[in-house]
């Protein structure tokens, strides 16, 4: 019998999502430079998932499709209102942010089941889907990015309109602002029904301008370069000059990358402390023991790896994300190594809380992975980036297929052995000894593309 069954009340859910926080940017994931004591503590007291991946997207603003996949539990071509490739400029059109209205979000499902749902922070998936998902909220930012002080912030609107001219300019750092809304909600909550608290930080996304005290913890000259640092990417991947890649000079300079890493880690440490405020509020209100805390990110980022700065690629640094769950019904100090996908979080939460799962959800619950009854939620993970990149990985062998599109990109394939080459520096696609692995992964990728009706197949007339 689960703990919440014995109490006769379902657990609360505090769901925390960061922006651009890759899997290895946490101490508990093996990073010996970054300081993340709160997240490390949650991992020690709960479950740390080692192999969770995003599915990419059809726009350079990858937070839009990534969050849509996470919220709906559906594949990257179905989760939003458009499946076509979208330019970064087009993403500024709010209609293209929207979640597919036929796919309920998991906060929406919990609200229907009697939960009080409260949202704060970044929402880059349209006003309508926020209104459907949350019965309350505060300090809401509708958009992709901005200065961390001075964001346009909305109060909760029960009518769900959220006119842009009604936004107020924030005076606090975004991370502190959103944590404050979460703490206030927890401290003031007196209702009998359980709650969902959704906290979406804009950190550690650029502009990475942490408070000076945090930046001083990370002297840039002390930052180790990643093992797969390159001055430039070895070939045209179809997106070498997108906005994110313009944030550092070409070719990449080691001292410049070290500065970016120092700012990145500073933002993460500042955010970690603000998460600590939320955890402390749960403890002070006696809610901690009946609350499932989830920490994850929408996607990762390169910051010098492979000569890249952004997340517009299908390497590990862009797709591989952290996932930590702690609370009732979950073991303590458990590492789960099997493959999972961002869309698997929705059904996992539903199984943990015995909440009915909508038929629209394609993700697979990871509860049996947590209990040790299953090794993985899935055999392979897949991802797409615009119409220039596709990826499949079985946890060891990983294939990335590149296409030319609009005059950019290169028609080629990469094959990596992640067991022996986790930094993806040794391409084995031309190795005759690896031909069997190459063909197998090519077959798996094509089968997935067909199953999800990947628009690139129609565009190129590829039917297998």
Automatic annotation (TrEMBL):
Cofactor(s) of this protein: Ca(2+)
InterPro entries the UniProt entry points to: Alkaline_phosphatase_core_sf, Sulfatase, Sulfatase_N
Segments forming domain Sulfatase N-terminal: 11-353
Pfam families on file: Sulfatase
Domain of life according to the entry: Bacteria
Keyword annotations of the record: Calcium, Hydrolase, Metal-binding, Signal
Signal peptide region: none
Membrane-traversing stretches: none
The family this protein is said to belong to: Belongs to the sulfatase family.
Organism, as annotated: Paenibacillus planticolens
Gene3D superfamilies per the UniProt record, alphabetical: Alkaline Phosphatase, subunit A
Descriptive protein name: Sulfatase-like hydrolase/transferase
